[in-house]
Amino acid sequence: MKRIIAAGATLLTAGGLGLGWTIARRLTAPVGPRDFDLTIRDMEVDGDRRLLILDRTRETAARGVYNLWFETGDWVRVSDEVLDRGSSQIARVVTDAMHDFLPSAGDRFSWSGIYFANPADAGLSAREISINTPAGAASAWLIQGDEDRSTWAIHIHGLGSNRRGTLRGVQVAAEVGYTSLVISYRNDGEGPRLGNERSTLGVAEREDAEAAVDFAVQHGAQRIVLFGWSMGAAIALQVASRARERSVIVGLVLDSPVLNWIDVIKANCARSGLPAVAGHLATPWLTLDPLARMVGLTGAVPLRELDWVQRAAEFTVPTLIIHGTRDDSAPIWGSQALHDLRPDLVELAAFEAGHTLSWNSDPKRWRSTVATWLSARVGPGDNGG
């Protein structure tokens, strides 16, 4: 969700209306190219290990396993070992690389939690299919579960991300025997392109996820678990709350969920050096129809309807939330509040990690947490039993 607010402090000199318009425009902006904002400073060889020398940042110094995506399209993975190289630099150990790619000093890259390049890279056998949605044909990966299984998992990525990001969770669904559907949706860079390709923060995108549910049911699904990441969690919550979906949705697994867009906007303003209160300036530009059209949307976004803490009493589906304590994009306090209000249905697992990076911080614990919860609250994929 890096793209939400990239506004600099200079925007503080703009009038309130102008600043609110700018924030709303950037929040809903069409998917753009990846930012290659980091640079390889040097390479070292330590026995049979290759080390990348990087500038020390909050991201590069975080423990965990990550992927470095390069301008050339190549990628390199690093281990969770962080080696000190003074106050301004660190070294990370290379564990894998695309086609034995070896970066050089000066190469620019993007630091990412999207660990797998494709399903095969994650050890998954997938078939590319197309789902008919109200927006048009949407690409999806179908990963078949055990024979005759009728429990499916539908995986929904977040704002500014793509299907590859959800493969971290698809692995667990495959291990417990579920058939998985890894979907794209309108204006995400892979799904159908509509209008000026702006995001509606999950409101219209929900229709495409519902089409995926219909596809799964038409192909034998009797029980469905929705995996949602960030904005994908907001989409999953909308799908699960609708009457026609409730009988088939039996569980939600939400990583770094957006539970209240107003809080998320404020948090991203603060992260970008703006006062958190500046986030309120964007609200009318999203929620009032004439102003939303000036932002480039086709109509207003009902942000209040997307406040799932306020709607906690409506929860009917067992839900596992995984959230990082260092998440400064969709802060964990919303998940904590929801858990406190609905401990009967909502379980919260906290990781020392940033936004959507809990898996990367501790893949073994993430997978064990999800598998254990699925076993206890949903059960195996066994003919709907």
Summarize the structure.
The protein has 385 residues and is of the alpha/beta class.
Output mean pLDDT: 92
In whole angstroms, the N-to-C terminal distance is 38 Å
Q: Determine the fraction of residues in helical runs and give it as a percent range.
A: 25-40%
CATH topology of the largest domain: Rossmann fold
The geometry reads as globular
Q: If you compute it from the alpha carbons, what radius of gyration comes out, rounded to the nearest whole angstrom?
A: 21 Å
Total number of strands: 15
How many helices in DSSP terms? 11
Query: What is the CATH first-level class name of the largest domain?
Result: Alpha Beta
The stretches of 5 or more residues where confidence is low (pLDDT under 50) are: 4-14
Q: Strand content of the residues, in percent?
A: 15-25%
| Main sheet properties | 8 strands, mixed
**Structural class of the helices, strands and pairings?**
alpha/beta
* Name given to the CATH architecture of the largest domain: 3-Layer(aba) Sandwich
- The order of strands across the largest sheet is 8-9-11-10-12-13-14-15
Query: How many domains in all?
Result: 3
